[in-house]
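Lab meeting, action items carried over

1. Structure of the two-component assembly. Owner: GW. Status: complete.
Input record:
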Amino acid sequence: MTVYETDVPGVGKKFEVDVGGGARAVVLLHHDGRVELFRRPDADADSEKVFELTSQQANYLGSILEGAYFETVDMDRLSVPLGDAIIEWVDITDASPVAGRTLAEADLRAVSGISVIAVQRGPDTVPNPGPDFRVEPGDILVTLGTREQQSVFADRCQGGDATIDGVDDGAGADGTDGA
Amino acid sequence: MAATESLLLAAGVMFATLAVGGALASRLDQSVIPAYIVAGVLVGPNAPEIAGQSLILVQQQEFITLLQELGIVLLLFFIGLEFDLSSLLRRREAVTRAAGVDLLLNAGAGFALGYAFGFGLVESVLLAGATYISSSAIITKSLIELGWIADPEAEAILGVLIAEDLVIAVYLALLTAVALSGGTLASALVPLGISVAVIAALVALATVGTPLVARALDTDADELFLLRIVAAVTVVAGVALALGVSEAVAAFFLGAAVGGTEHAHRVERVITSERDLYAAVFFFAIGLGTDPGALGAVAVPLAALVAVTVVTKLVSGYLGAAAYGLTERRRVRMALAMVARGEFSLVLAALAVTAGLDPQLTALIVGYVLAMSILGTVLMRLSGRVEALVARLRGGAGDGATPS
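Predicted assembly:
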């Protein structure tokens, strides 16, 4: 692609870019920072002014066109549909302390604060499992809880040598008991 | 104290009249230059009497002469600043042809008419310059407002304008030396030699001296920068004038020297408003020195001058656009765009006053600029209709001439 660049004495710089169909985009950079954007439908037509930008507006527009525009988002004001809770999928391995126990025995809500809302076992999905549902290695627990609760639970399920008591302490230290 | 009060009040009246005139001109989509001149006429020493009450509010005073001089040198400094030799060299062949036709037709017409009106040689040469040089200020402004600046004709128009700047700088240097030394070539030889030396020094500064200029202007504070630029311009122009060299040309080459450094944009940002202020005073001062009665006395030659040089500019503009390989419609546009004459012709009128040339010549040039600045602006705005008319005439002529 060719960009035609010319100095315009007393005005600034002019850039022309082919934009397909014989049309050209004409960008006029004034010395004072203003930017005018024109479109010329074909070589013999008059350039039509599309808009005029301040230098700051032009910078924003430029970074958007370039695909490089980022805006920092204030995390405090983000709301998740479930309040603070998120949903995670947790693989249960042989080493997991939860494996072979019923949900009641594991007492996950007291330990980490999360709730098991479904269990995937092979092709089957067990929705809303009861307290006597026994977790087996290879199951995938679909859990609901805050980000902190989820991370405590994930540590516990995957860090095979962590005992329930140890995790219990950690959860307490994280202050998630009351959640 | 009384003197200070009257000075301040005179300045107040001047700027107030300029402000009103400028506002009216913008409202009418016109160039501000004729408005500023008329403002000067209306409140100056030649002001008309209305109901027995004279309107004279501002006399030709020393402080106005100073501001006017600042206006001239800053105008020329900026033209030098924007002077771009590389853009001329890039389209060397097209520029040479376009600018050659431009010079031949327009300066030729001015010179021939000057001679026919009974002016002397120097006066006729000066008139040739006034009819030759189009107004960069008026034309560039209209190009931006009409959006032509984004179209191919802008390159050709600005190219020829820059070529004109270069020609007029050399011409002014020679003419000033001749005009200020009594008007004969023999008595002008020494001043011509000095002119060539001073300009050679400034050209050297603009080419090999760029790092020096850049270092001299290097400062963080805009205020100090402004002072350094204004100091440099006034010192160089003042020394030049003291040596009998055109201060305008000196300012032009100093501008070209600064234009070669990275400070060029900063000058545009920091000093443009100073230039506009003093240039307005320059046009106002031209009006102060203009007697409407004297304009009436030159009405016939003025009409002839306008009629002939509108046509010569239309033709040279059209041919110039053809040299740039532009299409028919764009040639018509360039023809219309080149008609406006303005600030440069007035610099020549001011030179005629300084050199004590025939006062009729000054009146003629001022009247000429009044007519051509307005006519040029109007023609550019009417381009749509003119283009359509030319297309129809061409179409009609084509039908008649060729049976196919």
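2. GW to write a short summary for the group page. Key points so far: Confidence is low (pLDDT under 50) at residues 398-404 of chain B. The CA atoms of residues 78 and 272 of chain B lie 8 Å apart.
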